[in-house]
Amino acid sequence: MTSTAGRLAHLQERKRGVGTKQHAVKFYQQNYESLRRQCLERGRLFEDDRFPAEHKSLGYNELMSPYSSKTRGVVWKRPKELCSNPMFINDGATRTDICQGALGDCWLLAAIASLTLDQKILARVVPPGQSFSEGYAGIFHFQFWQFGEWVDVVVDDRLPTRDGKLLFVHSAEGSEFWSALLEKAYAKVCGCYEALSGGNTIEGFEDFTGGIAEIYALDKAPPQLFQIMKRALKLGSLLGCSIDIANANETEAVTALKLVKGHAYSVTGAEEVHFRGRLVQLVRIRNPWGQVEWIGPWSDGSSEWKYVSGEDKSKLNHVAEDGEFWMSYLDFIRQFSKVEICNLTPDTLMSDNIGHWKQYQFEGMWRVGSTAGGCRNHHATFSSNPQFVVRLEDVDDDPLDGKDGCTFLVGLMQKDGRRQRRLNRDLQAIGYAIYEVPDEYKGRSNVHLGPDVLLRQRAVAMSSTFINTREVCDRFRLPPGEYAIIPSTFYPHKNGSFVLRVFSEKQADTSPLEEDIDAEMEEVRKATQHHDMRIYYALVDDLIILCLQQEKISENDVDPHFKYLFKKIAGNDTEISVFELVDILNHVVSNIGSCFLTGRDIKTDGFSLETGRLIISLLDKDESSMLGLMEFHKLWSKIQKYLEIFRKHDQDNSGTMSSHEMRGAATEAGFHINSAVLQAIVCRYADARYAIDFDSFVGCLIKVEMLFKMFKALEQADSGTINLDIQQWLCLAIY
User: By CB count within 10 A, which of 73, 194, 540, 596 is most buried?
Assistant: First the structure.
């Protein structure tokens, strides 16, 4: 309940703009300005109790034990204990400020290095005005994009050291500390330093910019890739590259030409130069180690530079050895395996060429039993996945192949993978399928496409793969139209939370595909089928056999024999208490299989007093807390109706109903629910195998109807909201 309330509160904050760059979320509710002010007033340096200077902040495995060879002798020190004149940023943040330490986070360092190429973007991640002099209180803060929102992260400046030197990221000269503190803040977000080991540069790119990433395999490089890279760099996009490894033994192996396998590099330039009468395409790359450089053609000191003009040399910033080097584009695509491009968000890019990406973002969840349907291979559950629609109208300007179409990117990201490493939880294999919306559903977002729609047609596009990585992103070009995006895990029945993002070149319309929450609460006056149904009622002394005809709708029409039997059950007060009601219902259900479902049993744990009280609360018109004749008759009509629905959706004749069928069953009962409500129902009413038995089914629908009626009674002017004070809320919640 508290987690649900927290999620709702979070959604309300998002509506107020919390999580944007202008109003970042305070990570762990720590406010940098107020904490810094408190420290200055008290004359004390900040000590972060949410990320303490202890071994648990270092790691969860190899860096967890103080007796490990990798952590033995580690001492946490502040920069002023390491040098006489520490600087936060000295003479501007540059790529040479970032040297890798004893942590396998070269992917992060490559992203930080690319970040320094655009001082405006850097200033968003590393807020200006921080220093070790004026106003120093041992506290610093940084901002990262995390799964759809910007967070402001506070850290103290106690850093892990060994033998008087920083253990992890450090500057070449040793007196500049912005990169080390940035690494610490990112480690705090991810849970510990060790959680940063191993990764993809694109992850850092996205978390520093909020952008969306594309990955190109260089053995299948498109003809225009060099121009794409050159254009992206001019527009401030962040680029990285790497060489794939065949096995773990190749990690950080150095090739004969001094390139490092399984290592993250940043791409910092793409230019064309005149060389012996022809144009040569060159790519500039940086190794975050600050050393170990390419020694092939166009490397530092190679003979090719003798034939380049001084003007071109100056343009290319041909400098001494610092971990950065040039190589030809042809050698680049031969030697490296992939290049990653992070397309920046519309509010980051200012160019007229690529800055017109339109961004759309949604958060969602896969929950076992309700919305974790798996990929299309799993026909029974696939349609239960969350669904989103994108409407494309305007075609691209100047398409490369001359054919009209609408270009858009779709990125599916699963949340909190690094934080869950310490729990030994792996990322799920994720992906998505894209379907054309049938004509009868076009222009609507208040629908949820069922198997009758999704399984009768082929997907018009799909993610390039289902893979256990943080994000799957692909570029598509489709004709104008309406398309449903179905994100999923590869296998069904896997919990997870995700962010789905769509970047389109032209304006698009996007929204979740969800049914409007509504209920048809007219009393059923006539059942769809007529039955002579034998109902067994358990009484204190004897058993009464009762036959009900469904068409009875008023007290005058009720069969006299029914009235007589009801009076025997109810006693002199002519009303049924909750205790009598539960006894009756349980006896009825225990015999219901032999009465109506020949050869089949209905699984039930029995009606509880809680369910009995819900039933009385719903049907008790005179507030006597008991059921009279007509109230009981209405109850039986409901149970008859719910029995038919339950039997229809028990497709395997197991006596229970799969929780994935609950959406359709609730709709047939007159209640239109969306995925969030469905998840709550499954959590409350499904068993350990995500099956719903009959008494739970009835109790659920009774509860849903009561909640709808409560809401409608309190709603004002069809506003879709109600206002309650604490007393009203508690009374309703307890009731």
Answer: 194
